[in-house]
Fold:
Amino acid sequence: MDDTEVKEAARVYTYEDYLNRDDDVRFELIDGVIYMMATPAPNHQIIAGEIHGQLWTFLKGRQCKAFIAPFSVKLSVGEGKDTVLEPDLVVLCDKSQLDKYGCVGGPDMVVEVLSTSTSKKDKTLKFEKYRQAGVRELWIIDPKKKSTSVYILSCGEYTAKTYSDTDIVPVHVLEGCRINLNEVFSEMV
Structure:
């Protein structure tokens, strides 16, 4: 299934529409436009799960917490620009940003695992929304290339560094935390 934009006679969808969706339907809302979400492939789940596991272990007993999808991140509401994303993984250090639906505002870190159906949207639309929301660290992982691009926010812009599947990558928003990419990619099927 392709990542598709749903257009209904120029209808603008709202955060309320997002909250009132059928529980079996997953979509993201970007500037009032619905983007349907396909079920993640096994390798997608393996990668996200392994990173979550490493973060979870590091964060045990600390203030910051890691959340894995499905987990809503409400970035903006109002003026026809309602935006609610569901990243693969989120690190949040400010508990006041949590509500009963997920995160309100830009989390400290977001991880997106690319898939054929979401690659373009993740690298353009969502990338820009994360930058605008002040997400301090964004990881975009390409399972096919076994590479990870890490974007660090500085003065409102991202600077990037790309890592291979043999690297151990520092998590800039979590001092002392490192993610072993060999372990992340080694379990792929």
